[in-house]
Amino acid sequence: MKILFLILLFTNILFSDAVKVYLYTPEINVNNFKSLKTSFDAYLSAFGNYEFQPFNDKETFEKYLKKTNSIAILSSWHYREIAKRYNLEALLVAQRKGYITDKKILVGAKNITLKGVVTSAYDKEYTNDVLSNITNNKSKELSVLKVPKEIDALMSVGFGMSRFALVSKDSFILLQNINPILAKDLTIYYESDPEYRTILACNEIDKEENKLVDIFKNMGLSDNGKNILNMIGVDKLVVFTMQNLKNRGEVK
Amino acid sequence: MKLLFFLSLFSLLLQGETILVMNSNSDVKKYTEAVDAFSKNFNRPFKTLDISAMSSSEIKQSLYDEYPDIVYAVGAKAYQYANEYIPEKKIYFSSIVDWKKFPLHGKRYGVSNELHSGMQLTLIKTVLSTIKTIGVIHSKYTQNIVDDFSHDAKQLGIKILPIKIEEESLKNKSFDDTVKESDAMMIIPDPLFVNNATAIKNLFIVSEKYKKPVIAYHELFIKYGATLVISMDNPTVGRQIAAMIESHINEEKIEKIQYPAGTNIIFNKKEAALIGVKFSPDISSIATEIVE
Q1: Which of A7, A234, B54, B209 is 20 to 30 Å from the Cα of B284, by its Cα?
Q2: Which pLDDT tens digit goes with each residue over B161-211?
Q3: CB neighbours (10 Å) of residue B43?
Q4: Which of B122, B264, B290 sits opposite A148 (nearest CB)?
């Protein structure tokens, strides 16, 4: 009887694997994986056997990606790097405050040289890459201090714990609104080109995976779904159109 | 022979300064979080020493044996021993409550255990934008903290209402008048107040009666009904010390004693809904943890 039960359990695990969506983005500092996974899983389970799997490092995330039937939520920076390797195609793009792109800026106190500690809420590799790009390789004398949130990075400059902060322009605008006196002493040294926000991408997917993409497309339409998406800094996910690509000159 | 001498000298220079991380007690979570983050972010060799089970003479002997150029002392106990036995060395410290009471002569650097008041107020305004008046309970021991809050609050258009407490009258203290006048109440790490469970309960009862949020500095206050908890992020402290030592080795100028650069926010959504306080629609992306 016991053996029969174990066989049934094993068969169940083997054949009822949930359809999974994987998340990794260097721009989101996930402090509470348990809460993030629980919230997404609870939302998705109402629609079927779906599971959300967040990762906090790039290598492990990539290990789970396959060349077919993979759904991934990732940064546009990472997407550019691995899209060809995993045959990924961007289907949805994150929207926040009405925009599907944002800019990264390097902020510091006025009239200082480009050296010293730069606070950033992003992954170190990503931070160094963005710094090198926006400063035209003049970032060699900057060292990165990772902090939990973009507003921490900005306040660290304002209150003397770092010389510079690498943040999104949205966060700087937020600080200007909340603490204009502190923000007044800061200046933007470098600004990136607009980049797409987080992307939901897939390769060749089956019917169930297609349904999961639709669930994400509609997630921002409900209050509950929007609250959960907000945990990864997203208001809603909108369809990634050919027009998006044309605007960036990526399609002829 | 001469060449050999210069080669030896060169190899000694390459070895650089020796570094020792002294942990007061590796069973204390906040110490271990700081040490772990330091270890992951510091790219030079260093040794670690947990002194929790060591006698004074063993600690003294270890410090004399190692005789490091730089010590990172985590917690008050580690700092006191390093400061006593090898005072001539560079000592960096973190995770010390009320670090100002310790001698800090010579090459002493560190990250304080308290967040900058301006940082806390900016975060309060980010989460609870309608708050204009905050009542802060304090005693003579924390007068300086309240003064800092009052100064920084002006920048943000917030008014601080200080409520001074004394040991004799604390037990029967009624917070009614101040709570009525304030949009929110704030608990700071005041030794008189936080060691009096009755006074803490009284404050939460009165705040709930007038539907006012309580803002605190430690997650323990969530169980009493705090709406917002703002605390420092321990791993960031470890990374910050690593960055400070690195900056010094590279001869860059830094602040000797810094405020913590990272914060944790716990938002009690359940309590906020109960008292009907308005909060940021972006709370899910701001908070480290949300209590539903």
Answers
A1: B209
A2: 999 999 887 877 889 999 999 999 999 999 999 999 999 999 999 999 999
A3: 7
A4: B264
